[in-house]
Amino acid sequence: MKKYEGRITVNEAAEIMNVSPQFVRIGLQRDRLPIGTAVKMSSKWSYHISPKLLGEYIGGDFNSL
Fold first, then answer.
1. How far apart are CA 34 and CA 40, in angstroms?
2. What is the rounded distance in angstroms from the CA atom of residue 26 to the CA atom of residue 6?
3. Is the Cβ–Cβ distance between 50 and 60 less than 8 Å?
4. For 2-21, what is each residue's pLDDT tens digit?
5. Distance between CA 3 and CA 44 in Å, rounded?
6. Which residue of 4, 24, 28, 63 has the fewest C-beta atoms within 10 A of its own C-beta?
7. CB-CB contact of 2 with 9 (8 Å)
8. Among residues 41, 40, 23, which one has the least CA distance to residue 32?
9. Domain spans of the chain, in order of start
10. Is residue 46 classed as helix, strand or coil in its secondary structure?
11. Got the DSSP string for 7-44?
């Protein structure tokens, strides 16, 4: 599996979780997914997904992501 450093994109997180990118975006926007942060910048959203938090959420080791 690919090693991630720093950040994971919405599309990468969706693939790891086996869900759609929209699921990840909405989950972060509504503070329902504890894997990172969504911030509205003017009219666009910006996302930060932590490899450590994603690893913990899916029940794995973030070093294996």
1. 17
2. 21
3. no
4. 666 667 999 999 999 999 99
5. 28
6. 63
7. no
8. 23
9. 10-60
10. strand
11. -B-HHHHHHHHTS-HHHHHHHHHTT--TTEEEEEETTE
